[in-house]
Amino acid sequence: MKLAGKVAFITGAARGQGRSHAVTLAAEGADIIAVDLCAPLDTVGYPLATPEDLAETVRQVEALDRRIVARVADVRDTASLRAAVDEGVAELGRLDIVSANAGILSSGSTQELTEAAWREMIDINLSGVWRTCKVAIPHVIAGGRGGSLILTSSVAGLKSYPNVGHYVAAKHGVVGLARTLATELGPYGIRVNTVNPTQVDTDMIQNDVMYRLFVPDSLHPTREQFAAASRATGLLPVDWISSRDVSEVVLFLASDAARYVTGISLPVDAGATLR
Amino acid sequence: MTRARNKVALVTGAARGQGRSHAVRLAREGADIIAVDICRQVDTVPYPMPTEDDLAETARLVEETGRRLVTAVADVRDLDELTGVVDDAVERLGRLDIVAANAGIHSGGVPTWEMDDQMWQDLIDVNLTGVWITCKVAVPHLITAGGGSIVITSSVAGMRPFGGIAHYVSAKHALMGLTKTLAQELGQHHIRVNALNPTQVDTPMIMNPLIYQLFLPEDPEPTKERFAVASQEGMLLPTPWVEPGDVSDALVFLSSDEARFITGIGLPVDAGVLAK
């Protein structure tokens, strides 16, 4: 058990990568504080997670005999986020690990994006990560045992893609935030890194918004067409990676195996960063 | 001086500092200028922001070069306001070729987790979203002109961290992403998009107690002289800071045909900070 006795706070935990992180960290002995918005958003063109999804994450963590405090909370709202983490720490006793994972995707060329789409993206994928860190860090410092923050950036935090300028900007911003936090939190023994995945097989990716981004010449691109286009972004012969592949990296960065790893951006990208 | 002859350049944050320098240098190189500045205080900014008198001084300096000029007081956070100002100015000056997305603020000096929400939000809104809005407003005019150059003012903080200013580092990193995405999208229109990454520049945004304190956290009353020593320690070259004109030199280069095949880059003007 790599994380026995530790507590991890995970945003966007109702499904996808967030759920996978929760289950992976719990299987290694961590108790979990899980939050998710569990509601639709105006500028997001695919279904977002539901309270039932979050309940399924709870079920899967409890099936591992770990404790979990799950709350519906919005990373755009410091108060709701702080209440969730404060309640979780009160119940579970401490906080060691933060996975700032909540994120959305929408699309449009940079000059055609609506102001609402830009602002919602920056507010969730960049400022939401900051708010997550802001409410969590005092608990990690108070523990006096160090800790590990893993911020979910993207390959789009290291290189650009057309028609998602707001997403690319936000994910680059997350890299800057992680580097700054690593600078500030080093003296407390708290490590801060980003994980930078390529396309992951989740509901954020397997939808028409993403399919059209990757297959712009087709009116109704299919999953098969997307698979071929997605595969072409990497070096390894895979269409996309699984949430579990990202969770393994999160687990590594959260564990003592990475005790002297801080301030880095770790791609899980099948080679996409080199393309 | 003809490297921008008969072009029209939009400069945001043009009332003083780097923006004023960019406006005057581009005018000396033959460009007409659209000079925009907010000319009022943003609440969470701890040093005095420029005034309409400052913008008038920029106008005077540009007019001395003999080039035409349109000035406007506008907020880069306000899409409708900036659209109105730029559309009107382009109509008066005939075209738009060069964009210097330069407007920016500084605040902070507190650990990331102690920063209040308004301070974070103001800085992200001005330094990141304001640059996006500037580009969104300008790009259709550049496409109409058949090409052009956008220069986005990032920072060395767009490439490496500095403690105490997480919002600034995040915004400036994000601008690198925005720069590269725009370069990808606009290459087909012969529009180049690059970023500048200056170190400390001798402007009112830097020469104030907030920045002195960032560099001299142990010093109860840091002075410009002691800041100079601390700032110099970050550089390879023997200078404590660079001048606005040094950044304008790089901007004029990136905006000119000398850089016609340069797009999607971040160009440090940093006296070696990033190499140290």
TrEMBL record, chain A:
Pfam families: adh_short (PF00106). Keywords: NAD, Oxidoreductase. SUPFAM superfamilies: NAD(P)-binding Rossmann-fold domains. It comes from the Bacteria. InterPro entries: NAD(P)-bd_dom_sf, Sc_DH/Rdtase_CS, SDR_fam, SDR_subfam_1. Belongs to the short-chain dehydrogenases/reductases (SDR) family. PANTHER family: DEHYDROGENASES, SHORT CHAIN, ESTRADIOL 17-BETA-DEHYDROGENASE 8-RELATED. This is Mycofactocin-coupled SDR family oxidoreductase. It comes from Cryptosporangium japonicum.
Automatic annotation (TrEMBL), chain B:
NCBIfam families: PRK12826.1-3 (NF009467), SDR_subfam_1 (TIGR03971). Keywords: NAD, Oxidoreductase. This is Mycofactocin-coupled SDR family oxidoreductase. The lineage of its organism: Bacteria, Bacillati, Actinomycetota, Actinomycetes, Cryptosporangiales. It comes from the Bacteria. Belongs to the short-chain dehydrogenases/reductases (SDR) family. It holds the Pfam family adh_short. PROSITE patterns: ADH_SHORT.
